[in-house]
Amino acid sequence: MQYLRELVPAAGSLAVLVNPRNLNRGSFTVAEAAARELHWESHVFEASTDDDLTTAFEAMAKRKVVNVAPDDFFTDRRAQIVALAAQHAIPASYYFRVFVVAGGLMSYGADAREPSRVAGNYVGRILKGEKPADLPVQQATKIELIINLKTAKALGLTFPITLLGRADEVIE
Questions:
Q1: Which domains does the chain have, with CATH numbers?
Q2: Interstrand relation of 143-148 and 106-110 (parallel, antiparallel or unpaired)
Q3: pLDDT tens digit string along 130-165?
Q4: Which residues contact 24 (CB under 8 A, 6 or more apart)?
Q5: How far is 134 from 149, CA to CA, in rounded Å?
Q6: What is the reported pTM?
Q7: Which of 72, 146, 151, 160 could pair with 100 in a Cys bridge, judged by C-beta atoms 3.0 to 4.6 Å apart?
Q8: Are 154 and 86 in contact (CB under 8 A)?
Q9: Among 23, 86, 37, 98, residue whose Cα is nearest residue 60
Q10: Per-residue DSSP letter, 69
Q11: For residues 148 and 106, is the Cβ–Cβ distance under 8 A?
Q12: How does pLDDT run across 12-51, given as a tens digit for each residue?
């Protein structure tokens, strides 16, 4: 949220897109707390079907910025979501890099390749005789900021140089 604040300092409200079928509400709770800390109003919009996405983006067009919560349904429909954000000229942030590659504005989240590497290490350890129950639970350790300058230009936004300097990848 801080990155959105730096990019769109005049924004006074945040729209958070969530899937009501996803029982993990942790990302919304974090987004809501971050919005409060930044003195933004937060508004939740729910979508679990393609039609819901269209309706949600029409309603979110009144908000200054959008955060799309991590969800497999959203990831599968990233092209549609990115197109709707562009159609309504909404600066949106995402959790996964694939949204930015598809034309989204920016993402800040765990490196999606890391879990595969960890899983591969675990398979190797299990094949060498370790018991799965003895392996520690691991969380993502690499968080990455990805920025799409082409999308920013289309939205009439300019990323501050300080924000660009913190990016792990800048797509031009």
A1: 2-110+143-171 (3.40.50.2300)
A2: antiparallel
A3: 998 988 887 767 889 999 999 999 999 999 999 999
A4: none
A5: 45
A6: 0.83
A7: 146
A8: yes
A9: 86
A10: P
A11: yes
A12: 888 989 998 887 766 667 777 888 888 888 888 999 999 9
Alpha helices for the chain (secondary structure H): 2-7, 26-37, 50-60, 72-76, 78-87, 97-101, 114-127, 149-154, 161-166
Grouping H, G, I as helix, E, B as strand and the rest as coil, residue 122 is helix
Pick from 125, 90, 116: which is nearest to 15 by CA? 90
Spatial contact of 78 and 104, defined as CB atoms under 8 Å apart: yes
Helix axes 78-87, 50-60, angle to 10 degrees: 30
Note every long-range contact of 113-119, with CB atoms under 8 Å and residues 24 or more positions apart, other chains counting: 114/140, 114/141, 114/142, 115/140
Tell me the one-letter amino acid at 168. D
Upper half-sphere CA count for residue 94 (Cβ side, 13 Å):
28
CB 11 within 8 A of CB 65: yes
